[in-house]
Write a structure and sequence with these properties.
The protein has 95 residues and is mainly alpha-helical. The protein has helices at 5-8, 24-40, 45-74; strands at residues 76-78, 84-87. The N and C termini lie far apart (51 Å).
């Protein structure tokens, strides 16, 4: 008796946790797992397509989190010597 592929590894098939709810670290770890699975060459074509799509979504999520962090860091205002002097208001709708 064979076990259905989805039952074996549902997360690797693209049905893992909602990406939007993942922290940067969780998304990066899952992305690394997706890449490892794809690089192994063991995934059938349909699973590889699902993995690729999830990996792309995870990559975009990680990039958005990094962009937001960069914007927050850039909100620190420096004086002429480059020392942090104050914080300017960070508008999260921009990041």
């Amino acid at each position: 008796m064979t076990t259905p592929l989805r039952a074996v590894n549902a997360a690797s098939m693209g049905t893992g946790p909602d990406i939007a709810s993942l922290s940067f670290e969780e998304a990066l770890k899952e992305l690394e797992n997706v890449v490892r699975r794809l690089e192994s060459g063991d995934a059938p074509l349909d699973e590889s397509i699902d993995l690729y799509a999830r990996g792309d979504a995870l990559r975009a999520h990680c990039q958005a989190r990094l962009d937001s962090a960069q914007a927050r860091i850039e909100a620190i205002v420096a004086d002429r010597d480059g020392k942090p002097q104050a914080l300017r208001q960070f508008d999260e709708t921009q990041g």
